[in-house]
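Recall from the previous lesson that a structure prediction takes nothing but the amino acid sequence as input. Here we apply that procedure to Peptidase C14 caspase domain-containing protein from Lolium multiflorum. The sequence below is the only information supplied.
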Amino acid sequence: MNCGGSRGPAATVRCRECHTNLTAAPGARAVHCMQCNCGTRVPGSGSGRQVVVVPHPRPNPGFGVCRSKKRAVLIGIKYTSRRAGELRGPINDVKCMKHLLTTRFGFPCEGIIVLTDEETNKCRLPTKENIRMAMHWLVQGCSNGDSLVFQFSGIGTQVPDEDGDERDCMDEAICPMDSFHQGPILDDEINAAIVRPLVHGAKLHALVDAHHSATVLDLPYQCVTSKTTGCLNWVKQPTPNGACKGTSGGRAVLISGSSGGKKMPANTLSEPCATMGALTHSFIKALECEPHASYGRLLTSMRTIMRQGGPCSLPGPVGSSVRKVTNFSGVEAPCMSSSENFGIDCEKLCI
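The prediction returns the following tokens.
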């Protein structure tokens, strides 16, 4: 399946950071460097001010059919073949999130798609194609009352923007397990795939524990702290080219990480112990401590938990076996963005 760009022969490009020669798959808009994690745009893959059109991918036979009002896609990638070393933590992030969703928020097991690079079923590997199909599965036929969750724990990157919709001239992206050849999935595509289809009454909560994830859903409202009052407020960040990045009436909320532009550490953990990501840990621990917290209270609690650090302390069969929290994504502080302006300090988080 192709999303942006045209099919043709494989292209060879030089990484814009380390200048390594990279091979991009036919039709790829960008390629991800295995050596330095930098994203590089493939020349001629698209023209400025393009409209991202996401074709409906073919159904994945490994996903099954679920019409539960509560559905989730959980993705954790270690990148075992990465030259700089695999990540420790993303797989446990997914397991702990699944436990949270099923035990505390009533998500049925058949309503949760898990993609990790430990899966033996090829349909459940977090390849670019499978992630695209999983995103389509998540929102397909969404209706009033649907509660959807999208989680990604892994590597994120940035790619030079082509269509003029980014204030910093960089697209954010998530990296599938095969992104070193197939390329990353850009924020434009993620927004088109799981944000814009949300109809009135449907809600999406996304948790992305990855480098450069702060605006990876391209949502128009950013949560900022007022310098005068210290209160959290929504501030609208319109796209420079006027592109619409909202939903079709529903609500999308992204909890992600600000990395301050620092380069992600190549290998954050060497000892073989059970670990999980710092951002994911802070999210789950904050909800376990205060299940009915407001969005603002949740964000504040997450920031406190990440700042204090310390060992992992989560209930459940997975959480109780995890001994260490690692900041594999280099996230400095949790942040939040939304498709709409709402009472961040008075509205309770409801997944």
